[in-house]
Design brief:
CATH topology of one domain: Ribosomal Protein L15, Chain: K, domain 2
CATH class of one domain: Alpha Beta
Shape: elongated
Distance between the termini: 84 Å
Strand content: 5-15%
Structural class: alpha/beta
Strand order of the largest sheet: 1-3-5
Number of helices: 4
Largest sheet: 3 strands, parallel
Order of helices and strands: HHEEHEEEHE
Number of strands: 6
Radius of gyration: 34 Å
């Protein structure tokens, strides 16, 4: 009867690993399969090495534009999250910070239109999406842009 501990791969299905540099009897002794001397026998040469000439990534000029320095990094709040406040409340960034909906009072706040709003609220924020404005107005509230 065959048992799991007696299973072996078929003859010729596996090869022993090459033991480089372990003597002449291995077939890779002496130079360990790297040939004789030279740069490639001594250390690692990266594929992008160009023999000492100025590499292509330094020869090419910088092209393109990144908006990173000029982009406004908004803290976003969805309209559906504003249902936790009482009716006819004036919602400012300070109130949003106290409620834990934003992390900082110093960064601008943008209200997004995801979710439904069932309460009449006055929302003060730095920016609104079009769908957020429609949702707030359809619930009977007002949206004020902070300058």
């Amino acid at each position: 009867m065959r048992r799991l501990q007696h299973l072996r791969p078929a003859d010729g299905a596996t090869k022993d690993r090459l033991r480089r540099g372990c003597g002449r009897g291995t077939g890779n002794g002496g130079t360990a399969g790297k040939g004789h001397k030279g740069q490639k026998a001594r250390g690692k040469i990266h594929p992008w090495f160009e023999g000492g000439q100025l590499p292509i990534h330094r020869r090419m000029t910088h092209k393109g534009f990144s908006n990173f320095r000029f982009a406004i990094d908004y803290q976003v709040v969805n309209v559906g999250m504003l249902n936790r406040f009482e009716n006819s409340t004036v919602i400012t960034p300070d109130i949003l910070k106290c409620a834990g909906l934003i992390s900082s009072r110093n960064k601008p706040v943008k209200i997004l239109g995801d979710g439904a709003l069932e309460k009449e609220l006055t929302v003060c924020a730095h920016a609104f999406t079009q769908s957020a404005l429609e949702t707030i107005k359809s619930a009977g509230g007002t949206a004020e842009v902070i300058g």
